[in-house]
Design goal:
This protein is mostly beta strands. The chain has one domain (5-96). The chain has 2 helices and 5 strands. The chain has helices at 27-30, 38-41; strands spanning 5-9, 21-25, 51-59, 75-87, 90-93. The longest helix has 4 residues, at 27-30.
Amino acid sequence: MQVDWHIALVKKPGQGEENTVVVETTPRVRRSHPKWTVSRLVNWEHSDAPVRISGWLMIDPEHRNHLGTYRSTLWEVHPITKIEVFKDGQWVDLDKLP
């Protein structure tokens, strides 16, 4: 899919989208991360396992109408440059998982 993927991060599992921070992958960056697939990311979609996101912090004023409904702030990480998951007591780069 050659579009940005909008991912809503919540503080606690089951929290509504009005409390999220949006992070986004881009097609250009995903080309360098072949393990960033929907089937791999879905493992953490409804999990309470922590994730750590690195990337560029950006303000996106085009989504003002989403405040309080789909996000809690106009700040987002876009594009994501690294995804880490907390596994077996340590942070592991998603690219290094089998």
